[in-house]
Amino acid sequence: MGPRLTIEEKRKRMMEIFHDTMEPYLLKELEKIGPKQKGIVSQTVKDVVQSLVDDNMVRCEKIGTSNYFWSFPSESALKRKTRLQDLEKELALMEAKQSELDSAIEQALLGREQTEEREGLVEELGDVEALWNKQQAELRQFEECDPVRMNERKKQTMVARDAANRWTDNIFIIQGWIRDKFNMDPAEFNKHFGIPADFDNL
């Protein structure tokens, strides 16, 4: 028994079967030819052939109830040539993109060379940013006394007071209606509904 073949060796030998004979085969035929001529274990022939079909190196067509497999040298060479052309186009695009990026990097670096003046300006910028952050923190401490915010709060307070007085008036209206309808004393009404004695408009 010879050395075990790698999957690539099996694929190469299987392609030799197709290219040497230039004939279509049934899978059963390949499972007989593979072990005899190329030393490919018959149980692995199906997987090898399928991997070649998946990579478009071998064609498979169903004729009637049977699947026929074939690959001609000219067809394989044409596919390789087409693949090579595609890869060359992709390489050219990538090289052009890299050239663009290199150019963009060079442009971005113009005027940003590390000089003493630049280092000084960067340090000064850091000091200014630190000062600005400190002043912003101090400003936040005085937000409560901001005149604009105080006026806004006054407006909101007046709106809330008016709303509270409307509800108070509504309660007085209900209180008066119940007093007239059921002859109930206002103090009794207040006691019944948990309304304090000093309840009044704000």
From TrEMBL:
Domain Leucine zipper with capping helix positions: 149-201
UniProt keyword annotations, A-Z: Coiled coil, DNA recombination, Meiosis, Nucleus
Pfam families named among the record's database cross-references: LZ3wCH (PF18517), Mnd1 (PF03962)
Residues annotated as transmembrane: none
Domain Mnd1 HTH, chain residue ranges per copy: 14-73
Coiled coil feature spans: 77-107
MF term (GO), any: double-stranded DNA binding
InterPro entries per the UniProt record, alphabetical: LZ3wCH, Mnd1, Mnd1_HTH
GO biological process: reciprocal meiotic recombination
Chief place of localization: nucleus
Taxonomic superkingdom: Eukaryota
Annotated GO CC locations: nucleus
Subcellular location: Nucleus
UniProt keyword annotation of Transmembrane helix present: no
Known function: Required for proper homologous chromosome pairing and efficient cross-over and intragenic recombination during meiosis.
Family statement: Belongs to the MND1 family.
Name used for this protein in its record: Meiotic nuclear division protein 1
